[in-house]
């Protein structure tokens, strides 16, 4: 069985090191925020499906900024998988593990990474062939020490994790230094109010700072 998240796509995620996680309220902000992130060196983003504009925003980025790898997050219903695919989303992720959503994504051929927080979640994901898993909420769940402890029985299977929740420039390096981590989810790169204020240069500065830390962490 092919993995739900293809190897070549995972390599692109790992190359970015950070996935910008954001909420977009107005479709016209989609392309500018994608360009601002790219200017700062971040080439992967996750648009959460929490606003009516989200799906159209994904479509706008797919059409206008094709060099950005734009996926969707907060995928908690099976019908969201089809909507994301129609919009041209490159991948989808969820905060938790929902077997119906996961099976729908596999059937549709949509690259998908479920959320996990326990060994039971990991084993449920493994049953469906997953090898890239979102660890959420990362810091409240014990951070990097929790990932290391929880991952130990499964290390021989080549699983990698994308932690999200409570991460920032002050603690991201401790995650990126671990070979268990594929990339980080970064909600601090493009906060909702900064997007609403069209502060594109601030987003670029945030992205550049994160990109610099990725390079530093992975050069050790």
Straight-line distance between termini: 35 Å
Q: Going across the major beta sheet, what is the strand order?
A: 3-2-1-9
Under the CATH scheme, which architecture would be assigned?
Alpha-Beta Barrel
Briefly note the CATH topology name.
TIM Barrel
What do you see in this structure?
- With 220 residues, the chain is an alpha/beta fold.
- The protein has a single domain, classed as Aldolase class I (TIM Barrel, Alpha-Beta Barrel), CATH 3.20.20.
- Helices cover 45% and strands 15% of the residues.
- It contains 10 helices and 9 strands.
- The protein has helices at 7-16, 30-39, 54-64, 78-87, 99-108, 119-127, 143-151, 172-176, 192-196, 200-218; strands at 18-22, 44-48, 69-73, 92-93, 112-113, 115-116, 132-135, 160-163, 184-186.
- The chain has a 4-stranded parallel β-sheet, with helices on both faces.
- Strand 2, helix 3 and strand 3 form a beta-alpha-beta unit.
- It is globular, with a radius of gyration of 16 Å.
